[in-house]
């Protein structure tokens, strides 16, 4: 009987630990997804600004040559 109780307690503790680790894992996954989305948005903004700068530069060059 004592052994059974000890094993049950161990099982309960391990289950709680597993539950906590799963929740932590899901939280980190969500954070990673959000950071990836933010990174993608910032990269798109960077590319847009680079294109705008290049177009501005090209227009200046065209004006200079014309």
From TrEMBL:
Keyword Transmembrane helix assigned: yes
Alphabetized UniProt keyword annotations: Membrane, Transmembrane, Transmembrane helix
The organism's place on the tree of life at top rank: Bacteria
Transmembrane portions of the chain: 13-32
UniProt name for this protein: Uncharacterized protein
Organism: Nostoc sphaeroides CCNUC1
């Amino acid at each position: 009987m004592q052994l059974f109780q000890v094993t049950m307690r161990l099982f309960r503790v391990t289950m709680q630990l597993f539950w906590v680790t799963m929740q932590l894992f899901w939280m980190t996954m969500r954070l990673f997804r959000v950071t990836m989305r933010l990174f993608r948005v910032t990269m798109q903004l960077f590319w847009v600004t680079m294109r705008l700068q290049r177009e501005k530069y090209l227009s200046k060059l065209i004006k200079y040559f014309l």
